[in-house]
Design goal:
Blueprint: E1 10-12, H1 13-18, H2 20-30, E2 34-38, E3 41-46, H3 49-70, H4 82-92, E4 98-100, H5 101-110, H6 122-133, E5 135-139, E6 150-157, E7 166-174
Parallel strand pairs: 1-2
Antiparallel strand pairs: 2-3, 4-7, 5-6, 6-7
Amino acid sequence: MELKKLEVPTSSITEVKRSPMEVFEQAKQAGTAVYVFNREKVAGVMLTQNQYETLLQELDALRSETKDFSSTPQEHFVDTGLEELYQRLQNSLMTASSISAKTLDERMVSNGFITRKTGFGGVTDMINELRQSGKIVYQLRQKSNDQNVVAEIMGKQDKSEHLSDHLIVDKIYIK
């Protein structure tokens, strides 16, 4: 795996062993984490206590936003039998977080949907569909009450990932 040039401070395991407080000071001055390398590979990341607690608070706030969204009434159910399926999808696909297209497909298949990774370019096709329409559409293997069930995974490509096959799930609709 080729490593991108980091826009954050770096240190080595040797420097951390010699003076961990200097690395914490480096993180404090830069206002960001310090990547710690061991033999030219990232071994970990060091943060100050304040930086760590700020990240935890931001994570809690994001989770609260997600819970607030999931507690709003869902008007897109075909019938009450789909609420259980919707809950399973909500539990297996965390909204507002990055997921690879391959993992998304595997989780949808495990919930009874037809795979989208057919052929050589399956993942690429999924990402292209997301870019063009803002969603990836899945069909349930079995009909519910003699109706085809479709799940629309609304989202966008994750630009922060160095891999182009990651996306962020915004909403899940079942029709």
